[in-house]
Amino acid sequence: MATFLSSLGRLALRRRGVTLLLWLLIFGGMGFAASSAPPPPADTFSMPGTQSQEAFDLLTKKFPDARADGSSARVVVRAPEGQKITDAGQRTEVGRLVAELGTSSPQVVTATDPYKTSAVSISKDGTTAYTVVTYKVPALKVSDKAHDALDAAVEKARKAGLTVEAGGDAVKVDQTMGGTGEKVGILVSAIVLVLTFGSMIAAGMPLITALIGVGIGISGITALGSTLGLSGTTSTLAMMIGLAVGIDYALFIVSRFRAERIEGRTPEEAAGRAVGTAGSAVVFAGLTVIVALAGLAVVGVPMLTKMGLAAAGTVAVAVLVAITLVPALLGFASVKVMARKGRLQYAVKPLSERRQRKAAKHASKSTKGGRPNLGARWASYVLRHPVAVLLVGAVGLGTVAVPAASLELGLPGEGSMSTKTTQRKAYDMLSQSFGPGFNGPLTVTVQANGAKAAGDKVGAALRTTDGVASVSPATANKADDTAILNVIPKTGPTEHKTEQLVHQLRSATSGLERGTASRILVTGQTAMFIDFSQTLDDALLPYLGLVVGLAFLLLMVVFRSLLVPLKAALGFLLSVTAALGAVVAIFQWGWLADVLGIEQTGPIMSTMPIFMIGVVFGLAMDYEVFLVSRMRESYVHGARPAEAVVDGFRHGGRVVAAAAVIMTSVFSGFIMEDNDFIKMIGFALAIAVLFDAFIVRMALVPALFALLGRSAWWLPKWLDRILPRVDVEGEKLDQHATAPAPHSPRERALVG
């Protein structure tokens, strides 16, 4: 592996013009393909095998005129204080609003008149009413013109004295990202890169190559969207993790290139060794990430499967960019990529043998004979106090992880939006005037011969169920073989009692089915959210087992050890569990909610643990592979176990810390967004990266190496014969390469 990648790196640098041109052609070609591709399909949310999906499919088949593919907006109207919405003057204004909404856009099918549809459209106190505006198209295809027309009609009614707010999937949601927080995160990333490398060229290269890789990946997803059924949101995870690993992979190779140049090697030799060693680590780190993302298929939700595979493809592109485009760009800036201080010593053609020895001697004095850098000093400290560091780190993370035992999963809705949004205001108005369950109605389907009569019997039975506020009369289709009823719970859609009610209704239907000779199903948005959360909850452990198991095998091949991949997997589980515990404490229990500006606590978003595992696992394995591969490289070249740990931190500690700070700053930018669930994602990813990089990889890993000694690299002989040899540490790169220079007396004293 190392030999092949080294040759690839040398070739990319020698043919840097051709390599750069090829990548630019790929980038431009994918961009052209994306721009000329048909529009991606609308988001389709399906969960095969669940009762909610079965009922939804039945409704689509039996009620074809209901336009299940359309969207709607629910406009809530409240009369001025002291007046009724049923007063003559208010009826006139509401009538004007309804008329304008019905003709506001060609995409509108109809707007219901609350005074003609049913008494349910007007609150019992007579102060509030609502109208439902139905559109011909899905929410993502509602035009800007239609959105503007809706906003204009609402604003006109407000000027007439009414309180008017709008909710529903057809209402435009402000999803603009890149606010102040994100800009600060990007600025911090740039500063960290500059401080790490001391060169603007070296700092910009990881950002540029990562953006090229993500651009190719996202363009590919867009180009194949209509063919493979990839919606516009499929690229969300691909963009997030593609950018993250793209920066990391380029950062690792640029850092190794600079280290090889400091040792006195020519640009071509440095590129070969950088891609052969750090590039090998990048390839295997990328494989572990691809395993984690492709593993989303075990969840059984098509949307997540597509997102995972699309993100895995983007990661594969990031790996290829790192091992080909990065060395090519380094060939264009082999001198300027070095730190400004002392740059002139590299501004020559191939160094003579004498100058190579002189440069290597100078580098040895500056990095080994002199004062050890911060990474080496920290590793030496941990090696002297392994038990204390291990206990403090493990107990600390374990304590933070305790709240994770109380994790409750749910999905976001309008009730979780900022109180400044019109959707949240409409949600609150409906809850106040019609009851909390009005925002989360359940739909019961009754399939039978004579469905109307059977539906009425089912409705009469459901009205007596504890937790049910009301049940609508049964509505049958033209064939009278399927009827639907709307059930309004007494509690809100995200409350635990509503979930219990759904399970209770489903349990009660078995007896009702025998009594009415029918097939009864419970669905609706609330029920689908509950089923989705349950599906993800059931899939969490199998997904973890698959990801950790396959990653264990990959890392065992890379490091030829049983204990190294085992501690890597256990450390990842510890950091993710601690991050989940912190999320539960803040977003579910409300600790520090005021500090972060969280307006409402509640269940944790169902998709967050799965996404967090995929993203954090990828970054954690990046840090593990890069840091430990340097230790392994030093160990196989003759260093003692303790010296190998110090070597790994001296060369890789600063780079891993920089990568972690960059990712933390980028993810932290999401915390400043208005939406609480976006805050949650940003906080979860930021805190998980901090825990994993600085506590697990930078503290627990060297502490365990200190305690295990040589046994950390133990592998049974029979297993050693079976496993393929991939030479990640680069033993075969240069048969004449010298072993790492011995540690200085001071460092030997530090490591004991």
Automatic annotation (TrEMBL):
Residues 207-332 form the SSD domain. Keywords: Cell membrane, Membrane, Transmembrane, Transmembrane helix. InterPro entries: MMPL_dom (IPR004869), Mycobact_MmpL (IPR050545), SSD (IPR000731). It holds the Pfam family MMPL. It is a multi-pass membrane protein. The chain crosses the membrane at residues 184-203, 210-230, 236-254, 275-301, 307-333, 387-407, 540-559, 571-592, 604-623, 655-672, 684-708. The keyword Acetylation does not apply. It is found in: Cell membrane. Belongs to the resistance-nodulation-cell division (RND) (TC 2.A.6) family. MmpL subfamily. This is Membrane protein. It comes from Streptomyces albospinus.
